[in-house]
Design goal:
57% of the residues lie in helices and 9% in strands. With 280 residues, the chain is an alpha+beta fold. It has 2 domains: 169 residues; 103 residues, Endonuclease, Chain A (3-Layer(aba) Sandwich).
Amino acid sequence: ERLGVLRALSALGSLPGRPYAVGSFFLFFLEDYVRELGALRDGETISDRASELREVLRCFHAAGISAEPLRLVYEHVARDFPEFEVAGALLPLSAAASLCHTMLATGLSSPAAVTVLLRASLREPLVHIADDAQELRLLKMIEMLIRLDYLHTQEQLPPDVTEYLSVIRDLRYYDRELRRDTALSYQLSFFLRKHGFPSKRHMLGPYPLKVCDPEERINFEPVEDREFRGGMPEDPFARKRRHLEAIGWRNFQVSSSTWGALPSYEAKAAHLRRILKEND
């Protein structure tokens, strides 16, 4: 299967240092692939097509390839998806939001494609979506990405889509992760309370903040040591920090490795006092 080969090439292309030159193979794939984009294949649903496009974009992004012919993929979404829907093949909110989020998160998108996918999403009443649903998390992230990272796209959105994003921004979203403490987040909260920091839990858009002061807009981010998927433009903690700082929050990251290396209660307390003093 072609997508299986593309995934394998993507894994090679995303290795540290990118030792394998896979770009030409991706371009050969893309040349054939875009020629076949058009009507849905026999037995293929519009959700299947959206899922396939997500996989293709993720593979290109992981391998660090942003080829000009990818615009034909965006044009396919913008041009053909509305025709599929006119013919009765409606794109569900979950599939539309997933593809839109992938396009924005990878930087492989166009304003026209984003508009089509958000218009497909807004067909489904938000009142039927639970406040902890994955679909709502994706929509909240889409809204924040467009508002903070894609001003050019935001300027080209039609009024109905702009209004929809405004509603999304105001909706309450609850991430269950907010109440799940790790050893690091629990200890951080405990030490900071000892020094007069409120250490509250708070949701900000799609982001759960476990150790923060919402009034002063200060967040302590407990960062667990882990490896993220190769080919990401920035790890999730870096994107979260950048977004928080863009809307006026101060964000201080404390990694589990740094915290674990502090040998005593006094050393941990001194480390946090130093952070607070340096950023007072």
